[in-house]
Amino acid sequence: MVQEAFGHEFRRKHFTLLDPSVILLNHGSFGTTPTCIIEKQNEVSLRHEWYPDYFETFEVEELYRKQIQSLSDYINVDARNMALVTNATTGVNTVIRSIPWNFSEDKVLFHSTAYEACKNTIKFMAEYFGLQYDVVELNYPLDDDEVLSKFEEKLSNKKYRLCMFDMISSMPAVMLPYKDLIKMCQKYDTMSLLDGAHAAGQVSLQFLDELQPDFMTTNLHKWLSVPKACALLYVNKKHHGMIQTLPISWNYSSDSCQPRAQPKTVEDRTHNDNLLHNKFWFIGTCNYSQYLCISEAIRFRKEVCGGEDCIRSYQEKLQKKAISAVIKEFGPGSVLLQNEGNSLVSPGLFNISLRLGDKYKQLEEKLINDFNYFKKMRVLCARLTMERKAYIPFFYHNEKLWVRFSVQIFNEIEDYVIGARIFKDTLIEVYDRELASQPTQEL
Amino acid sequence: MVQEAFGHEFRRKHFTLLDPSVILLNHGSFGTTPTCIIEKQNEVSLRHEWYPDYFETFEVEELYRKQIQSLSDYINVDARNMALVTNATTGVNTVIRSIPWNFSEDKVLFHSTAYEACKNTIKFMAEYFGLQYDVVELNYPLDDDEVLSKFEEKLSNKKYRLCMFDMISSMPAVMLPYKDLIKMCQKYDTMSLLDGAHAAGQVSLQFLDELQPDFMTTNLHKWLSVPKACALLYVNKKHHGMIQTLPISWNYSSDSCQPRAQPKTVEDRTHNDNLLHNKFWFIGTCNYSQYLCISEAIRFRKEVCGGEDCIRSYQEKLQKKAISAVIKEFGPGSVLLQNEGNSLVSPGLFNISLRLGDKYKQLEEKLINDFNYFKKMRVLCARLTMERKAYIPFFYHNEKLWVRFSVQIFNEIEDYVIGARIFKDTLIEVYDRELASQPTQEL
Q1: How is B218-237 classified by DSSP, letter by letter?
Q2: Coil, strand or helix: which one is A114?
Q3: Interface with B, mutate which of A53, A85, A129 (most B CBs under 10 A)
Q4: What is the rounded radius of gyration, in angstroms, for the C-alpha atoms of chain B?
Q5: CA angle centred on A315, ends A314 and A318, rounded to 5°
């Protein structure tokens, strides 16, 4: 079978639900779903309406099991350690709120560039119940060794019960040395929770069964073509007893507060093998339709796209050209966020800095120091770039303005040329308007 | 405008997605959604795919606000105290897991007939973190006074921080004297959490602003025609600061651990008025499509059905005839679950006992005493009744077998005649097979 060419023609054929006038350079935030998979979702929804009693009592469970099995076969991860949740934030919440914490003693570690909603989850546990936490400050660019030594500085005190870290952070979009971090957690007797929000569909997940971290969650709607919103939660088998669904539902099993020992008898093993399935397949009346499209998403990626290697090969080639094109558009002083080991950039995401003139110095200082002010300006800019059909997210990190670009199989090089130009012009327009509206001393 | 006649013709016109051969007598478990509302949901989903960045950043918030406002106008409850969650179990979890419990002191009260998933939530908090709880045993039929005095016996000790109780229980489907229970909780300084899973669309919710309980949650997909799954969470304004979304997300505000005082300044009031909205409108990438169909569901109920009074009037008339018909089909000894004050039965739900012959005495004793055995038999029976397109849920309560019937605007009296007959025949078939398969002494 000859692989169809990726790019705009591919988009016109397979992403027909997308506004054709949009230059889509922010696949990373919400994902973009091929039409055939949304059609499958509609089919499942109609099946649900056909006889809701039958669907919820008998059909969902087997369909759920099949999705887990398809995914297991595709990503090479043991199906018994897999459950489905709504999104990675829900995955993180499921874990953090399933641990029988000793609030007066337990401490959690995470890094400053972790996802806001996940940091908030730990802050909530701290402010409401007294869970303690500590933060590893990460200011990029950083080499993997630097990241690791910053974590080790904390972890080597052996006082952390859990360490949460990203596989690929959101903003800045950078890869962390997650395999080494798993081993480091194991060395220092700390549970590892990997936030792989951007992982599935960008990097291989085969390391899970090999390295056996404690927990990992990854969105399937971002980079694996599943409809919004669906995520995988990987749970190390030693925690199957402890972990509980969010919300707690019908299948909560009351004897599972303490982590289960390794299975000893055949019966126990059978029980253990089905434990995650039994808890997670039904968590009350929900719209399960997006969960039940995983097989179709995998079929699309295998049959239409030619598999993960084909997808990544296209992304990598396009990314190289896109980086040059954006740097050229952004002009002098703009650089790719990368380290010496070239380990920060993932196939689908890269960040380029944008250096504005001295005229904006005071304004940018205020934006860097006042996050609420930045949020206000970000909304203004987002609204205008969306009107111009070329929204791209931006942020300040380590005192620089960075713009995050996504690379997908429907993109072509001209998206980056035009998108970067519209973004830069719009940002300057918004900043100029802001400067004009205020006396300088207010900035 | 002349109101269209309810019944089978109405079903053929407005519930076209439902398998026409199904005798639908279990609307109560999952809800049944009119076609026009599912069509609206598809429209919203397509809008989401058209430009996901724009939809999630700008459109969802205003659409969410409009749904809350429509619902507020329709049910006469202050919009500022309303938030949307996935289902009532999620609503209960949101509350139970947002309270900064003092685990070594706090105690919760609920009743034995509460919904299993909600009881599990409290048991989880007990087993994982040490929250204490106590249970009011309810064995129906009971007069409201009896229910109230059972609660007062416990509550008058003033040792409970929160009391969770149903408005209309699931199985048995009976109404509780929830208004009096709210007042009783207030008298004894206990927070009230109403599980109104079956309330919206069956009973008026106007009491919320008048009696001001602490928390109430009610599914909108069961009896208010909204697609699966969507529920209202009512939060008394004094708890807007404390309550947090499930999962914790972007809009968690860290200064809200302690319940906020009454607003004192204009700024504070404005803040307070938008606080629930600000927290709940966005909890990460989700399928929001069902939430955004509330206005359409209300339009259907107003314009097509003629409003809540018309719906209830049809339900009540049909229910009277249905009760007689089922009792006749079930035969001698079968009764309606009702008390002397006639306060147990809600417009859409009633329970009829089914008395089987002495032949089944030992089998039924085992079913009553061994819940796992009952679950096994229930599945066998459910599968067969669903194959015969006439599933109705049944359960043992207070040593009797009860069957729960729903009454909806698409039902007619013959549904109950045929449905009851198929149910009874199937149950006996399953029980006979079970008796035949086992030596008597094993039962």
Answers
A1: EESTTTS-PPSS-EEEEE-G
A2: coil
A3: A53
A4: 23
A5: 85
Q: How far is CA A179 from each of CA A164, A207, B319, rounded to the nearest angstrom?
A: 13, 8, 63
- Between CA B276 and CA B298 the distance in angstroms is 22
Alpha helices in B245-360 (DSSP H): 266-280, 294-299, 308-330
Nearest by CB: B53 against A100, A257, A391: A391
Angle at which helix A266-280 crosses helix A60-75, to 10 degrees, equals 110
Give the three-state DSSP class for B69.
helix
Query: Is B250 close to A86, i.e. CB distance below 8 A?
Result: no
Which residue positions in chain B have pLDDT lower than 70?
A: 1-2, 254-271, 440-443
Look up residue A63 and give its amino acid: L
A19: β partners = none
Above 70 in pLDDT, residue A11?
A: yes
- Which tens digits make up the pLDDT trace of A217-259? 999 999 999 999 999 999 999 999 999 999 999 999 755 444 4
Distance CA(A135)–CA(A154), nearest Å, equals 9
Q: Distance (Å, rounded) from C-alpha B92 to C-alpha B88?
A: 6
| CA proximity to B135, closest of B115, B158, B117, B108 | B108
B280: left (phi over 0), alpha (psi -120 to 50) or beta: alpha
* Contact between residue A130 and residue A155 where contact means Cβ atoms under 8 Å apart: no
Shortest Cα distance, chain B CAs vs residue A42, angstroms: 8
CB-based contact A287:B41 (threshold 8 Å):
no
pTM: 0.95
What pLDDT digit, counting tens, does each position of A321-354 carry? 999 999 999 999 999 999 999 999 999 999 999 9
pLDDT at A262 over 50: no
Where helices occur in A217-286 by DSSP H, the ranges are: 266-280
Residue A376: partners with Cβ closer than 8 Å, 6 or more residues away: none
Question: What distance in Å separates the CA atoms of residue B356 and residue B432, rounded to the nearest whole number?
Answer: 11
| HSE-up of residue B318 (Cα within 13 Å, Cβ side) | 28
CB–CB contact A247 B58 (8 Å): no
CA distance B392 to B26: 6
Distance from the Cα of A358 to chain B's closest Cα (Å) equals 31
Distance of CA A258 to the CA centre of its chain: 29
Are B193 and B92 in contact by the 8 Å Cβ rule? The answer is: yes
Q: Could you tell me the pLDDT band of residue A4, with boundaries at 50, 70 and 90?
A: confident
Amino acid (1-letter code) at residue A67: Q
- Smallest Cβ–Cβ distance between A53 and the set B17, B290, B391 belongs to B391
The answer to whether A139 touches A397, Cβ cutoff 8 Å, is yes
Nearest to B216 by CA among B240, B197, B203: B197
| Residue A106: count of CB within 10 angstroms of its CB | 18
In chain A, what residues touch B58 (CB-CB under 8 Å)?
Answer: 382-383, 386
Q: Where are the alpha helices (DSSP H) in B99-222?
A: 116-129, 144-155, 178-187, 207-211
Q: Three-state DSSP class for B139?
A: coil
For residues B40 and B264, the answer to whether their CB atoms sit within 8 Å is no
A178/A184 Cα distance (integer angstroms): 10
Q: Please state, in angstroms and as integers, the Cα–Cα distance from residue B176 to each residue in A52, B157, B198, following that order.
A: 27, 21, 12
Contacting residues for A42 by C-beta, under 8 A, at least 6 apart: A289, B42
A374-420 confidence digits (pLDDT tens): 999 999 999 999 999 999 999 999 999 999 999 999 999 999 999 99
User: Exposed, middle or buried, B274 (CB in 10 Å: 0-12/13-18/19+)?
Assistant: middle
Q: Is the peptide bond before B393 cis (omega within 30 degrees of 0)?
A: no
Judging by beta carbons within 10 Å of its beta carbon (0-12, 13-18, 19+), is residue B279 exposed, middle or buried? Answer: buried
The residue of chain B with its CA nearest to that of A291 is: B287
